[in-house]
# Entry
Amino acid sequence: MTQGGPSNYKNLLVEPSDHAIGRSRGGLSTKIHHLVDGNGLPLVVLISPGQAGDSPMFEVLMEHLRVARRGPGRPRSRPDRMRADKAYSSRAIRAHLRRRGIVAVIPEPDDQKRHRKRRGPRGGRPVSYDTDDYKNRNVIERGFNQAKQWRGLATRYDKLALTYRGGAVLRAITLWLQALGDTP
# Structure
C-alpha cells in the first residue's frame, strides 16, 4: 500500500509517518471512519488522511469490530447486515460480506451500473439490496454529526494522529454514556 493507506493504520499504537494528515479538496484534513450500531453509536473508530478513500478502510474497520456478549462467550465480530453508501460498493467488499454471511445493504453507483450494462451478459447481475432498510442509513450520518459536535474533532488541532484518534474515541465513549443515561 502507498503512504496513508490502510496498511499504515492496522497497528493503532504506532504513530503513522504522515500523522494521518492528507490533502483533500478542502485542504489538509483527516477522515474519521466509524462502524456504528443501529442507534448510531460508534463501535469502531479509526482515522486516515483526508485524501484516503473510504472503501480501502473497510476491511481494517471490520478487523477491529468486537462487541462483548452478555455472559460468557467470544465477542461478536459479525453483524447481521451492513448498511453503507455507494463509496463501499465494490466486488471485493461484497465478496467479503458474502463470505462472512453478512447481508449487504449497499446501492450500486451509476457508473458501475453503466459499466455492467456495457459489458452485456459478461457484466453480471444487477446488485440487489433492501431499499427500505437502506433508508435507515441516516443513522450513520447522524452518528458522524454527533461526533463532530466536538470542536476538536471538527477542526483538528492535534499534531499527533494518536492524540486525535484518542479524542474521537473519547467522544464515542461520551456518546455511549449519554445513551446509557449516565450523563446529562
About this structure: The CA atoms of residues 19 and 106 lie 31 Å apart.
